[in-house]
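Researcher: Here's a chain I'd like modeled. Treat it as a single chain, no partners, no ligands.
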Amino acid sequence: MNQSPAESVDEGSLDAAVISKVWPYFHDVQLAGTRRLKGRSHRVYECTDARGGAVVVRLSAPHRARFGIEASLVQRCRDAGVPVPAIRYVGNQESAYGPVSIMVQDKVAGETLREHATRVGPERARDVVRQAGEILAEIHQVNTTEFGSVDANLHGTDSKFGDWFIDRLEAKLNEARRIEPTSGRLLDRAMALMRIHRAMLDDCSPKLLHGDYSPDNLIVEDGCIAAVIDWEAAKSGPPEMDIGWWDCFFESPLTQASELISGYERRIKFEPERLLTLRHLAVLRIMIGHFSWTLSVGDPEGIKHAAERIELEVDTADSWAHA
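Model: Modeled as a single isolated chain. C-alpha cells:
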C-alpha cells in the first residue's frame, strides 16, 4: 500500500518544507539551516540565513494558533516601549499534513533568565529579576477592555473579572471531580474562598497580562532584559495575576517573587493588602486548573504538588483572605 507524504516523511522534514516555502515572504537572503527548539505549545525552530542572521519560526495547527492576535498585542507592547522581538511574518500555508499556521520573529541574542540566574547565582541574579519586575509594570500599563483571553483589539471575553476567574473554572472543576471524586471536599473549600471574594474580583480594572511571565520567557543579554517572548497566553485582568503565576511555578532562591515585586514597585506601587489577597487567589485558581490538568494526563507528581498547594492556600487563608 502506498504511504501518504505525512506517513512517509518525518515531522521535521515536513516543517522544513513549509519554512522553505514561506521564507521568501519575509527574507531576501537564502535559508542556510533549521534547528528544532523546545516548545510546549507549538513546533519551534531557529532558522539561520546565509549571512548568519537568525529568526525563530513557530508552527501550529490553525485551530490551536493565536498568532494574529499575538502579533497585534506584541506590536502594542513595542509601541509602549516593552522589549519584544519584531515579528516578521504571520500567515497560513498548506502542507503535506494539512494547513499550518506560522509566525516568524527575530531571534534575540542572549540566554533565558533561568539560565542566567543559574549561571551567575542569586546575588547577581537579583538585579535582573528586579528589572523583570520593572518591565512587567510597563506591560501592565497597556490598557485592555473587559477580562479573560484577548482578541487582536485587546478586548476580553467577560465583562466582569469574577465571570472569568470563577465561572470559567467550572468545567475544570467538574472534570477533576469526575476523575478523582475524593477531591470534592478540597475543591469545594477552595471555591468557597474564591466566591466570598467575588466583589473584590469584580472591582478589578483590566490591564494587559502576559499570562506566562516567567524566567523561561525573559531573554537576558549583558546583564539586562533584552526581550519578553511567548505571548500566546496573554489575557486581560489585574496585575496580581502575573505575580501569582510566577509564585505558582517559578518562585525559587534564584528568582524570588519578592525581588520581582521590588522591581515592579520602582514604577508602580501595589496596595499591600490587595496584592496579598489577589496574589493568593491567583495561585489558588491556577493550581485548581493545574490539578485538573495533571489528573487528566495522569501525572502523579503534578497531582500531588497541585493538591498540596491548594490545601496550603486554603489552610492559611486566615493570613491573606480579606473579603
